[in-house]
Amino acid sequence: MIRLLNLAVLSVVFLSACSDVGNLKDLVTPFEISDSLETATYPEAISWWRSLEKESPYVCVKEFGETDAGLPLHIVFINTSRNFNHESIKNSGKTLWLVNNGIHPGEPDGIDASMLYAREILSRENFESEFNDLVIMIIPIYNVGGSLNRNCCSRANQNGPESYGFRGNARNLDLNRDFSKADSENARSFIKLFSKWNPDVYLETHVSNGADYPYTMTYLLSHPDKLTPPLNTYLSETISESLKSKMKGKGDEMIPYVNVFGTTPDSGFASFYDTPRYSTGFTALHNSIGLLTETHMLKPFKQRVVSTLNFLNSLGETLVEEGSHVKEARAAANMYLSKQQEFTIDWEIDDSQVDLLDFKGYEAFYDTSEVTGELQLYYDRSKQWEKQIPYLAHLKAKTIVSAPSYYLVPSSWDQVVQRLELNAVEMKLIGQDTIIEFSAYQITDFESSSSPYESHYYHSNVEVEKSSVKREIRANSYYLISTNQLKRRLLVEMLEPKGPDSYFNWNFYDEILQQKEWFSSYVFDPEASEMIKDPEILKALEVFVSKDSTNRNNSRAKLAFLYKQSSHYEGDRHMIYPVYRIE
Protein backbone atom coordinates (compact mmCIF):
# COMPACT_ATOMS: atom_id res chain seq x y z
CA MET A 1 0.00 0.00 0.00
CA ILE A 2 1.39 3.41 -0.99
CA ARG A 3 -0.15 6.35 0.82
CA LEU A 4 -0.73 9.58 -1.08
CA LEU A 5 1.36 12.51 0.18
CA ASN A 6 -0.68 15.28 1.73
CA LEU A 7 1.49 18.21 0.68
CA ALA A 8 -1.14 20.59 1.99
CA VAL A 9 0.19 19.85 5.45
CA LEU A 10 3.32 21.76 4.48
CA SER A 11 1.39 24.99 4.07
CA VAL A 12 0.04 24.93 7.63
CA VAL A 13 1.62 27.57 9.85
CA PHE A 14 2.72 26.05 13.16
CA LEU A 15 3.25 28.42 16.05
CA SER A 16 6.39 27.43 17.93
CA ALA A 17 5.49 27.12 21.58
CA CYS A 18 8.81 25.83 22.93
CA SER A 19 7.34 26.29 26.42
CA ASP A 20 3.96 24.53 26.71
CA VAL A 21 3.54 21.26 28.56
CA GLY A 22 1.27 18.47 27.31
CA ASN A 23 0.75 14.74 27.23
CA LEU A 24 3.51 13.13 25.18
CA LYS A 25 1.92 9.69 25.35
CA ASP A 26 -0.81 10.83 22.97
CA LEU A 27 1.74 11.57 20.24
CA VAL A 28 1.56 8.29 18.36
CA THR A 29 3.92 8.10 15.39
CA PRO A 30 2.93 7.16 11.81
CA PHE A 31 5.09 4.05 12.28
CA GLU A 32 2.92 2.94 15.21
CA ILE A 33 -0.38 3.91 13.57
CA SER A 34 0.46 1.63 10.61
CA ASP A 35 1.20 -1.31 12.94
CA SER A 36 4.92 -0.92 12.17
CA LEU A 37 4.41 -1.39 8.43
CA GLU A 38 5.02 2.17 7.23
CA THR A 39 7.56 4.97 7.66
CA ALA A 40 6.55 8.59 8.08
CA THR A 41 6.26 10.77 5.00
CA TYR A 42 7.96 14.17 4.98
CA PRO A 43 4.72 16.05 5.79
CA GLU A 44 3.81 13.54 8.51
CA ALA A 45 7.27 13.71 10.07
CA ILE A 46 7.37 17.51 10.23
CA SER A 47 3.79 17.63 11.54
CA TRP A 48 4.64 15.09 14.27
CA TRP A 49 7.75 16.99 15.36
CA ARG A 50 5.80 20.25 15.46
CA SER A 51 3.24 18.53 17.67
CA LEU A 52 6.02 17.33 19.97
CA GLU A 53 7.30 20.90 20.11
CA LYS A 54 3.90 22.08 21.32
CA GLU A 55 3.74 19.40 24.01
CA SER A 56 7.26 19.72 25.43
CA PRO A 57 9.09 22.83 26.69
CA TYR A 58 12.37 21.06 25.97
CA VAL A 59 11.80 20.88 22.19
CA CYS A 60 12.09 23.47 19.44
CA VAL A 61 11.79 22.90 15.69
CA LYS A 62 13.47 25.29 13.28
CA GLU A 63 13.99 25.57 9.55
CA PHE A 64 17.66 25.82 8.67
CA GLY A 65 18.10 25.71 4.91
CA GLU A 66 16.88 24.95 1.43
CA THR A 67 16.85 21.74 -0.58
CA ASP A 68 16.86 20.89 -4.28
CA ALA A 69 13.18 20.01 -3.85
CA GLY A 70 12.30 23.64 -3.05
CA LEU A 71 11.13 22.70 0.46
CA PRO A 72 12.94 23.54 3.70
CA LEU A 73 15.14 21.43 5.91
CA HIS A 74 14.20 21.24 9.58
CA ILE A 75 16.17 20.63 12.73
CA VAL A 76 14.80 19.63 16.12
CA PHE A 77 16.56 20.81 19.28
CA ILE A 78 16.12 18.96 22.56
CA ASN A 79 17.63 20.85 25.49
CA THR A 80 16.89 20.56 29.22
CA SER A 81 17.72 24.25 29.61
CA ARG A 82 14.73 25.15 27.41
CA ASN A 83 17.04 27.50 25.56
CA PHE A 84 17.47 27.21 21.80
CA ASN A 85 19.62 30.22 21.08
CA HIS A 86 22.85 29.37 19.25
CA GLU A 87 25.14 31.55 21.35
CA SER A 88 23.62 30.36 24.63
CA ILE A 89 23.92 26.70 23.71
CA LYS A 90 27.50 27.10 22.49
CA ASN A 91 28.46 28.94 25.68
CA SER A 92 26.77 26.33 27.88
CA GLY A 93 29.60 23.85 27.37
CA LYS A 94 27.11 21.07 26.73
CA THR A 95 27.94 18.21 24.39
CA LEU A 96 26.25 18.63 21.00
CA TRP A 97 24.94 15.49 19.30
CA LEU A 98 23.57 15.78 15.75
CA VAL A 99 21.41 12.99 14.27
CA ASN A 100 20.76 12.98 10.53
CA ASN A 101 17.94 10.82 9.14
CA GLY A 102 16.70 10.04 5.66
CA ILE A 103 19.82 10.90 3.70
CA HIS A 104 18.73 7.82 1.74
CA PRO A 105 14.96 7.91 2.31
CA GLY A 106 14.59 4.36 1.05
CA GLU A 107 16.52 3.48 4.22
CA PRO A 108 14.10 5.10 6.66
CA ASP A 109 14.69 3.31 9.96
CA GLY A 110 16.17 6.33 11.72
CA ILE A 111 13.30 8.60 10.66
CA ASP A 112 10.89 6.59 12.80
CA ALA A 113 13.33 5.52 15.51
CA SER A 114 14.24 9.16 16.23
CA MET A 115 10.60 9.99 16.93
CA LEU A 116 10.29 7.06 19.31
CA TYR A 117 13.57 7.99 20.99
CA ALA A 118 12.67 11.65 21.51
CA ARG A 119 9.26 10.80 22.95
CA GLU A 120 10.78 8.15 25.19
CA ILE A 121 13.49 10.28 26.79
CA LEU A 122 11.23 13.33 27.15
CA SER A 123 8.72 11.16 29.04
CA ARG A 124 11.26 10.11 31.65
CA GLU A 125 10.84 11.59 35.11
CA ASN A 126 14.59 12.12 35.37
CA PHE A 127 14.99 13.62 31.89
CA GLU A 128 16.34 16.96 33.16
CA SER A 129 18.96 15.44 35.41
CA GLU A 130 19.97 12.68 32.99
CA PHE A 131 20.37 14.88 29.91
CA ASN A 132 21.43 18.10 31.61
CA ASP A 133 24.80 18.23 29.82
CA LEU A 134 23.68 17.04 26.37
CA VAL A 135 21.91 18.91 23.58
CA ILE A 136 20.36 16.65 20.94
CA MET A 137 19.86 17.99 17.41
CA ILE A 138 17.81 15.87 14.99
CA ILE A 139 17.29 16.37 11.25
CA PRO A 140 13.96 14.53 10.71
CA ILE A 141 14.46 13.97 6.96
CA TYR A 142 17.52 15.32 5.14
CA ASN A 143 16.79 14.15 1.58
CA VAL A 144 13.42 15.86 1.18
CA GLY A 145 13.20 15.33 -2.59
CA GLY A 146 13.97 11.64 -2.25
CA SER A 147 11.41 11.32 0.53
CA LEU A 148 8.70 12.85 -1.67
CA ASN A 149 9.60 10.43 -4.49
CA ARG A 150 7.82 7.64 -2.66
CA ASN A 151 7.48 4.13 -4.06
CA CYS A 152 7.07 0.51 -3.04
CA CYS A 153 9.80 -1.31 -4.82
CA SER A 154 13.10 0.45 -5.62
CA ARG A 155 14.89 -1.29 -2.73
CA ALA A 156 14.78 -4.80 -4.21
CA ASN A 157 16.89 -6.26 -1.37
CA GLN A 158 14.95 -4.72 1.52
CA ASN A 159 12.26 -6.19 3.79
CA GLY A 160 9.83 -3.28 4.30
CA PRO A 161 8.36 -0.82 4.93
CA GLU A 162 5.48 -1.01 2.48
CA SER A 163 6.45 2.30 0.87
CA TYR A 164 9.45 4.57 1.21
CA GLY A 165 11.45 7.30 -0.47
CA PHE A 166 14.12 7.09 -3.17
CA ARG A 167 17.91 7.14 -2.79
CA GLY A 168 18.54 10.07 -5.15
CA ASN A 169 17.44 13.56 -4.19
CA ALA A 170 15.39 15.94 -6.36
CA ARG A 171 18.40 16.21 -8.72
CA ASN A 172 19.04 12.45 -8.43
CA LEU A 173 22.22 13.09 -6.42
CA ASP A 174 23.34 10.68 -3.72
CA LEU A 175 23.66 13.02 -0.76
CA ASN A 176 26.09 10.71 1.04
CA ARG A 177 28.57 11.32 -1.76
CA ASP A 178 28.14 15.09 -1.66
CA PHE A 179 29.67 16.35 1.58
CA SER A 180 32.95 17.48 0.03
CA LYS A 181 31.80 18.64 -3.43
CA ALA A 182 28.48 20.11 -2.18
CA ASP A 183 26.61 20.12 -5.48
CA SER A 184 23.19 19.97 -3.84
CA GLU A 185 21.29 22.68 -2.00
CA ASN A 186 20.86 20.07 0.74
CA ALA A 187 24.61 19.71 1.22
CA ARG A 188 25.23 23.45 1.15
CA SER A 189 22.55 23.95 3.82
CA PHE A 190 24.01 21.12 5.88
CA ILE A 191 27.58 22.43 5.71
CA LYS A 192 26.42 25.86 6.90
CA LEU A 193 24.59 24.20 9.78
CA PHE A 194 27.58 22.02 10.66
CA SER A 195 29.99 24.95 10.51
CA LYS A 196 27.73 27.05 12.72
CA TRP A 197 27.02 24.46 15.41
CA ASN A 198 30.22 22.37 15.21
CA PRO A 199 28.63 19.26 16.79
CA ASP A 200 30.81 17.02 18.91
CA VAL A 201 29.19 13.81 17.67
CA TYR A 202 27.38 13.11 14.41
CA LEU A 203 25.14 10.08 13.75
CA GLU A 204 23.65 9.17 10.38
CA THR A 205 21.10 6.36 10.00
CA HIS A 206 21.06 3.86 7.11
CA VAL A 207 20.03 0.37 5.99
CA SER A 208 22.69 -1.92 4.55
CA ASN A 209 23.17 -3.79 1.29
CA GLY A 210 25.32 -6.85 0.69
CA ALA A 211 25.72 -10.20 2.44
CA ASP A 212 23.22 -12.03 4.65
CA TYR A 213 23.97 -12.68 8.35
CA PRO A 214 22.09 -12.82 11.69
CA TYR A 215 22.91 -9.33 13.04
CA THR A 216 20.28 -6.62 12.77
CA MET A 217 22.66 -3.73 13.48
CA THR A 218 26.03 -3.01 11.92
CA TYR A 219 27.86 0.27 12.35
CA LEU A 220 30.52 2.50 10.85
CA LEU A 221 32.81 5.00 12.55
CA SER A 222 34.94 7.84 11.28
CA HIS A 223 37.86 5.56 10.54
CA PRO A 224 40.05 5.77 13.66
CA ASP A 225 43.28 5.58 11.67
CA LYS A 226 42.23 8.79 9.90
CA LEU A 227 41.20 10.70 13.01
CA THR A 228 43.46 13.26 14.66
CA PRO A 229 45.00 12.03 17.93
CA PRO A 230 43.76 11.49 20.59
CA LEU A 231 40.30 11.19 19.00
CA ASN A 232 41.46 8.09 17.14
CA THR A 233 42.14 5.98 20.21
CA TYR A 234 39.29 7.54 22.20
CA LEU A 235 36.77 6.60 19.53
CA SER A 236 38.02 3.04 19.03
CA GLU A 237 38.79 2.21 22.67
CA THR A 238 36.04 4.07 24.54
CA ILE A 239 33.07 5.13 22.40
CA SER A 240 33.03 2.04 20.20
CA GLU A 241 33.49 -0.37 23.11
CA SER A 242 30.78 1.36 25.12
CA LEU A 243 28.32 1.12 22.23
CA LYS A 244 29.02 -2.56 21.64
CA SER A 245 28.61 -3.33 25.34
CA LYS A 246 25.37 -1.38 25.70
CA MET A 247 23.85 -2.87 22.54
CA LYS A 248 24.74 -6.39 23.69
CA GLY A 249 23.17 -5.60 27.07
CA LYS A 250 19.95 -4.75 25.21
CA GLY A 251 20.01 -8.15 23.52
CA ASP A 252 20.97 -6.54 20.20
CA GLU A 253 24.56 -7.53 19.53
CA MET A 254 26.08 -5.59 16.66
CA ILE A 255 29.09 -5.92 14.39
CA PRO A 256 31.20 -3.50 12.30
CA TYR A 257 29.71 -2.76 8.89
CA VAL A 258 29.96 -5.92 6.78
CA ASN A 259 31.80 -4.63 3.72
CA VAL A 260 31.05 -7.69 1.57
CA PHE A 261 29.42 -7.65 -1.86
CA GLY A 262 29.19 -10.66 -4.15
CA THR A 263 31.15 -12.90 -1.78
CA THR A 264 30.57 -14.30 1.72
CA PRO A 265 31.70 -12.91 5.10
CA ASP A 266 33.43 -16.11 6.25
CA SER A 267 36.49 -15.32 4.13
CA GLY A 268 36.82 -12.00 5.97
CA PHE A 269 36.46 -8.40 4.89
CA ALA A 270 37.98 -4.94 5.23
CA SER A 271 36.76 -1.88 7.09
CA PHE A 272 35.24 0.88 4.99
CA TYR A 273 37.52 3.70 3.83
CA ASP A 274 35.47 6.87 4.26
CA THR A 275 36.87 9.73 2.19
CA PRO A 276 35.40 13.23 2.75
CA ARG A 277 32.60 12.72 0.23
CA TYR A 278 30.99 10.54 2.93
CA SER A 279 29.63 12.02 6.14
CA THR A 280 32.04 10.28 8.50
CA GLY A 281 34.96 11.33 6.31
CA PHE A 282 33.65 14.89 6.27
CA THR A 283 33.21 15.06 10.05
CA ALA A 284 36.79 13.82 10.52
CA LEU A 285 38.00 17.01 8.79
CA HIS A 286 36.41 18.94 11.66
CA ASN A 287 37.65 16.71 14.50
CA SER A 288 34.07 15.64 15.10
CA ILE A 289 33.17 12.03 15.88
CA GLY A 290 31.11 10.50 13.07
CA LEU A 291 29.05 7.31 13.24
CA LEU A 292 26.66 5.47 10.92
CA THR A 293 24.07 2.84 11.70
CA GLU A 294 23.53 0.21 8.99
CA THR A 295 20.65 -2.09 9.91
CA HIS A 296 20.45 -5.31 7.93
CA MET A 297 18.19 -4.95 4.90
CA LEU A 298 16.57 -8.38 5.11
CA LYS A 299 15.41 -8.06 8.70
CA PRO A 300 11.74 -6.99 9.10
CA PHE A 301 11.18 -3.23 9.18
CA LYS A 302 9.90 -3.22 12.76
CA GLN A 303 12.96 -5.14 13.94
CA ARG A 304 15.27 -2.67 12.19
CA VAL A 305 13.52 0.36 13.70
CA VAL A 306 13.73 -1.16 17.18
CA SER A 307 17.43 -1.88 16.65
CA THR A 308 18.03 1.72 15.56
CA LEU A 309 16.14 2.86 18.66
CA ASN A 310 18.44 0.64 20.74
CA PHE A 311 21.44 2.29 19.13
CA LEU A 312 20.09 5.79 19.80
CA ASN A 313 19.58 4.87 23.43
CA SER A 314 23.05 3.32 23.64
CA LEU A 315 24.75 6.34 22.09
CA GLY A 316 22.71 8.70 24.25
CA GLU A 317 23.72 6.78 27.37
CA THR A 318 27.35 6.83 26.27
CA LEU A 319 27.32 10.58 25.65
CA VAL A 320 25.66 11.24 29.00
CA GLU A 321 28.54 9.33 30.60
CA GLU A 322 31.32 10.52 28.31
CA GLY A 323 30.24 14.01 27.24
CA SER A 324 32.97 15.92 29.04
CA HIS A 325 35.60 13.44 27.83
CA VAL A 326 34.36 13.82 24.24
CA LYS A 327 34.91 17.57 24.46
CA GLU A 328 38.32 17.07 26.08
CA ALA A 329 39.38 14.67 23.32
CA ARG A 330 38.23 17.13 20.66
CA ALA A 331 40.10 19.99 22.32
CA ALA A 332 43.26 17.88 22.48
CA ALA A 333 42.80 16.92 18.81
CA ASN A 334 42.47 20.57 17.84
CA MET A 335 45.67 21.34 19.73
CA TYR A 336 47.46 18.47 17.97
CA LEU A 337 46.11 19.66 14.62
CA SER A 338 47.40 23.21 15.18
CA LYS A 339 50.94 21.83 15.34
CA GLN A 340 50.61 19.12 12.70
CA GLN A 341 52.85 19.65 9.67
CA GLU A 342 52.35 16.51 7.60
CA PHE A 343 48.96 15.20 6.55
CA THR A 344 47.95 11.92 5.01
CA ILE A 345 45.44 12.90 2.34
CA ASP A 346 44.91 9.44 0.87
CA TRP A 347 44.85 6.04 2.53
CA GLU A 348 44.60 2.39 1.59
CA ILE A 349 43.75 -0.83 3.39
CA ASP A 350 46.73 -2.21 5.32
CA ASP A 351 46.65 -5.92 4.52
CA SER A 352 49.73 -6.54 6.68
CA GLN A 353 47.62 -6.07 9.83
CA VAL A 354 44.93 -8.73 10.13
CA ASP A 355 42.63 -8.80 13.14
CA LEU A 356 40.34 -11.67 14.06
CA LEU A 357 36.66 -10.75 14.37
CA ASP A 358 34.16 -12.91 16.25
CA PHE A 359 31.39 -13.32 13.70
CA LYS A 360 28.10 -15.18 13.36
CA GLY A 361 27.06 -16.07 9.85
CA TYR A 362 24.83 -18.20 7.68
CA GLU A 363 26.15 -21.09 5.64
CA ALA A 364 26.51 -20.12 2.01
CA PHE A 365 26.08 -22.42 -0.96
CA TYR A 366 25.93 -22.19 -4.72
CA ASP A 367 23.22 -23.57 -6.97
CA THR A 368 22.47 -23.22 -10.66
CA SER A 369 20.21 -20.27 -11.43
CA GLU A 370 17.14 -21.11 -13.49
CA VAL A 371 17.43 -17.66 -15.07
CA THR A 372 21.10 -17.44 -16.01
CA GLY A 373 22.10 -21.09 -16.01
CA GLU A 374 25.15 -20.08 -13.98
CA LEU A 375 26.06 -20.78 -10.37
CA GLN A 376 24.37 -18.35 -7.98
CA LEU A 377 25.22 -17.58 -4.34
CA TYR A 378 22.55 -18.34 -1.72
CA TYR A 379 22.42 -18.41 2.10
CA ASP A 380 20.85 -21.12 4.29
CA ARG A 381 19.52 -19.39 7.43
CA SER A 382 18.79 -22.74 9.05
CA LYS A 383 22.54 -23.36 9.24
CA GLN A 384 24.25 -20.73 11.37
CA TRP A 385 27.95 -20.73 12.20
CA GLU A 386 30.12 -18.77 14.61
CA LYS A 387 33.86 -18.36 14.25
CA GLN A 388 36.68 -15.88 14.02
CA ILE A 389 37.18 -14.37 10.57
CA PRO A 390 39.95 -12.14 9.16
CA TYR A 391 39.15 -8.46 9.52
CA LEU A 392 41.32 -5.80 7.87
CA ALA A 393 40.56 -3.00 10.29
CA HIS A 394 43.51 -0.72 9.58
CA LEU A 395 44.56 1.81 6.96
CA LYS A 396 48.04 2.90 5.94
CA ALA A 397 49.19 6.16 4.43
CA LYS A 398 49.20 6.32 0.64
CA THR A 399 49.83 10.03 -0.01
CA ILE A 400 51.39 12.44 2.50
CA VAL A 401 51.80 16.18 2.01
CA SER A 402 53.11 18.99 4.17
CA ALA A 403 50.86 21.88 5.04
CA PRO A 404 51.97 25.26 3.63
CA SER A 405 51.76 28.40 5.71
CA TYR A 406 49.17 29.82 3.31
CA TYR A 407 47.16 28.89 0.27
CA LEU A 408 46.42 31.36 -2.49
CA VAL A 409 42.98 30.60 -3.93
CA PRO A 410 41.85 32.48 -7.06
CA SER A 411 38.67 34.49 -6.60
CA SER A 412 37.65 33.73 -10.20
CA TRP A 413 36.86 30.12 -9.29
CA ASP A 414 33.83 31.16 -7.27
CA GLN A 415 32.49 27.61 -6.82
CA VAL A 416 35.52 26.79 -4.68
CA VAL A 417 35.40 30.10 -2.80
CA GLN A 418 31.74 29.52 -1.97
CA ARG A 419 32.46 26.05 -0.59
CA LEU A 420 35.27 27.36 1.57
CA GLU A 421 32.94 30.06 2.88
CA LEU A 422 30.27 27.44 3.67
CA ASN A 423 32.86 25.61 5.75
CA ALA A 424 33.60 28.82 7.69
CA VAL A 425 37.18 29.02 6.41
CA GLU A 426 38.90 32.26 7.39
CA MET A 427 40.31 34.00 4.31
CA LYS A 428 41.30 37.46 3.20
CA LEU A 429 41.05 38.94 -0.30
CA ILE A 430 44.38 40.49 -1.31
CA GLY A 431 43.25 44.03 -2.07
CA GLN A 432 46.31 45.45 -3.80
CA ASP A 433 48.85 44.42 -6.43
CA THR A 434 51.45 42.34 -4.62
CA ILE A 435 54.58 40.46 -5.68
CA ILE A 436 54.54 37.07 -3.98
CA GLU A 437 56.86 34.06 -4.09
CA PHE A 438 54.96 30.79 -4.00
CA SER A 439 54.95 27.14 -5.08
CA ALA A 440 52.80 26.00 -7.98
CA TYR A 441 51.78 22.51 -9.08
CA GLN A 442 51.87 21.38 -12.68
CA ILE A 443 49.44 18.53 -13.33
CA THR A 444 51.60 15.96 -15.10
CA ASP A 445 49.18 13.05 -15.21
CA PHE A 446 45.68 12.03 -14.14
CA GLU A 447 42.89 9.63 -15.01
CA SER A 448 39.23 10.46 -15.49
CA SER A 449 36.17 8.27 -15.19
CA SER A 450 34.77 7.12 -18.52
CA SER A 451 31.19 7.72 -17.38
CA PRO A 452 29.73 10.34 -15.04
CA TYR A 453 29.75 9.67 -11.32
CA GLU A 454 27.46 11.87 -9.22
CA SER A 455 27.32 14.46 -12.02
CA HIS A 456 31.12 14.61 -12.47
CA TYR A 457 33.76 12.94 -14.59
CA TYR A 458 35.83 12.27 -11.52
CA HIS A 459 39.65 12.43 -11.61
CA SER A 460 42.03 10.04 -9.86
CA ASN A 461 45.68 8.99 -9.76
CA VAL A 462 46.81 12.58 -10.07
CA GLU A 463 50.53 13.28 -10.45
CA VAL A 464 52.08 16.71 -9.96
CA GLU A 465 55.39 18.52 -10.15
CA LYS A 466 56.05 21.47 -7.85
CA SER A 467 58.07 24.54 -8.79
CA SER A 468 58.84 27.91 -7.21
CA VAL A 469 57.40 31.02 -8.81
CA LYS A 470 57.68 34.73 -8.09
CA ARG A 471 54.89 36.76 -9.65
CA GLU A 472 52.73 39.81 -9.22
CA ILE A 473 49.27 38.99 -7.91
CA ARG A 474 46.68 41.49 -9.10
CA ALA A 475 44.44 43.19 -6.56
CA ASN A 476 41.28 41.25 -5.67
CA SER A 477 42.31 38.24 -7.76
CA TYR A 478 43.36 35.89 -4.94
CA TYR A 479 42.35 35.01 -1.42
CA LEU A 480 45.11 34.56 1.14
CA ILE A 481 44.19 31.65 3.41
CA SER A 482 46.27 30.87 6.46
CA THR A 483 46.45 27.21 7.47
CA ASN A 484 46.82 28.34 11.08
CA GLN A 485 43.11 27.83 11.80
CA LEU A 486 40.75 25.08 12.92
CA LYS A 487 39.92 24.30 9.28
CA ARG A 488 43.56 23.36 8.67
CA ARG A 489 42.88 19.73 7.78
CA LEU A 490 39.91 20.57 5.57
CA LEU A 491 42.05 23.06 3.65
CA VAL A 492 44.79 20.53 2.99
CA GLU A 493 42.47 17.72 1.91
CA MET A 494 40.29 19.93 -0.30
CA LEU A 495 43.02 22.06 -1.89
CA GLU A 496 45.79 19.50 -2.47
CA PRO A 497 45.01 18.06 -5.93
CA LYS A 498 46.12 14.53 -5.03
CA GLY A 499 43.48 14.25 -2.30
CA PRO A 500 40.79 11.76 -3.42
CA ASP A 501 37.97 14.23 -2.73
CA SER A 502 39.85 17.42 -3.53
CA TYR A 503 38.14 20.16 -5.48
CA PHE A 504 40.49 19.34 -8.36
CA ASN A 505 39.39 15.71 -8.50
CA TRP A 506 35.74 16.82 -8.51
CA ASN A 507 36.40 18.85 -11.69
CA PHE A 508 36.20 22.35 -10.23
CA TYR A 509 39.46 23.27 -11.98
CA ASP A 510 39.04 21.43 -15.28
CA GLU A 511 39.41 24.68 -17.23
CA ILE A 512 43.17 24.54 -16.72
CA LEU A 513 43.36 21.13 -18.43
CA GLN A 514 42.43 22.57 -21.83
CA GLN A 515 44.97 24.37 -23.97
CA LYS A 516 43.36 27.55 -25.31
CA GLU A 517 45.75 28.77 -28.04
CA TRP A 518 47.15 26.65 -30.90
CA PHE A 519 48.97 27.23 -34.21
CA SER A 520 48.77 26.71 -37.93
CA SER A 521 51.52 24.32 -38.96
CA TYR A 522 52.50 26.28 -42.07
CA VAL A 523 52.91 29.43 -39.96
CA PHE A 524 54.83 27.88 -37.09
CA ASP A 525 57.06 25.52 -39.12
CA PRO A 526 59.68 28.16 -40.07
CA GLU A 527 60.02 29.20 -36.43
CA ALA A 528 60.33 25.56 -35.41
CA SER A 529 63.14 25.16 -37.92
CA GLU A 530 65.03 27.93 -36.17
CA MET A 531 64.33 26.40 -32.77
CA ILE A 532 66.00 23.04 -33.53
CA LYS A 533 69.25 24.81 -34.32
CA ASP A 534 69.58 24.87 -30.54
CA PRO A 535 71.27 21.51 -29.71
CA GLU A 536 69.37 21.13 -26.45
CA ILE A 537 65.98 21.62 -28.09
CA LEU A 538 66.93 19.24 -30.92
CA LYS A 539 67.99 16.63 -28.38
CA ALA A 540 64.69 17.05 -26.49
CA LEU A 541 62.77 16.54 -29.75
CA GLU A 542 64.70 13.37 -30.49
CA VAL A 543 63.94 12.02 -27.02
CA PHE A 544 60.26 12.87 -27.50
CA VAL A 545 60.14 10.96 -30.80
CA SER A 546 62.03 7.97 -29.41
CA LYS A 547 59.54 7.52 -26.55
CA ASP A 548 56.64 6.86 -28.91
CA SER A 549 57.19 5.42 -32.38
CA THR A 550 53.88 6.87 -33.59
CA ASN A 551 55.43 10.33 -33.33
CA ARG A 552 58.25 9.50 -35.78
CA ASN A 553 56.11 10.23 -38.86
CA ASN A 554 53.68 12.58 -37.14
CA SER A 555 54.67 16.10 -38.16
CA ARG A 556 51.86 17.73 -36.12
CA ALA A 557 52.99 15.97 -32.95
CA LYS A 558 56.57 17.13 -33.49
CA LEU A 559 55.50 20.71 -34.08
CA ALA A 560 53.19 20.59 -31.08
CA PHE A 561 56.11 19.45 -28.91
CA LEU A 562 58.24 22.34 -30.13
CA TYR A 563 55.33 24.76 -29.74
CA LYS A 564 55.26 23.93 -26.04
CA GLN A 565 58.95 24.89 -25.86
CA SER A 566 58.30 28.25 -27.47
CA SER A 567 57.25 31.59 -26.04
CA HIS A 568 53.79 31.17 -27.63
CA TYR A 569 52.70 28.40 -25.29
CA GLU A 570 50.56 29.41 -22.28
CA GLY A 571 52.81 27.46 -19.93
CA ASP A 572 51.86 29.60 -16.97
CA ARG A 573 48.22 28.51 -17.26
CA HIS A 574 47.81 25.22 -19.12
CA MET A 575 47.99 22.30 -16.65
CA ILE A 576 49.06 24.69 -13.88
CA TYR A 577 46.89 24.20 -10.82
CA PRO A 578 45.79 27.73 -9.89
CA VAL A 579 45.78 27.19 -6.13
CA TYR A 580 49.24 28.17 -4.94
CA ARG A 581 51.19 27.41 -1.78
CA ILE A 582 53.19 29.90 0.26
CA GLU A 583 55.53 27.60 2.13
Q: How would you portray this structure in words?
A:
It contains 15 helices and 19 strands. It has helices at 30-33, 42-55, 86-92, 109-122, 127-130, 144-148, 185-197, 231-249, 279-284, 301-339, 414-422, 488-495, 521-531, 535-547, 555-563, and strands spanning 59-65, 73-78, 95-100, 134-139, 201-207, 217-221, 254-256, 269-270, 289-295, 342-349, 355-368, 375-392, 395-402, 406-410, 428-429, 434-448, 459-473, 478-482, 576-582. α2 runs parallel beside α4 and α8 (231-249) packs antiparallel against α10 (301-339). The model is unreliable at 1-21 (pLDDT under 50). The chain has an eight-stranded mixed sheet. A six-stranded antiparallel sheet has the order 15-18-14-19-16-17, covered by helices on one side. The chain has three domains: 7-339, 3-Layer(aba) Sandwich (Aminopeptidase), CATH 3.40.630.10; 402-513, no CATH class; 521-563, no CATH class.
Q: Looking at the structure, what is the overall shape?
A: globular
By CATH, the architecture of the largest domain is named: 3-Layer(aba) Sandwich
Using only C-alpha atoms, the radius of gyration works out to 27 Å
Would you state the CATH class of the largest domain?
Alpha Beta
Q: How many alpha or pi helices?
A: 15
Residues in helices, as a percent range? 25-40%
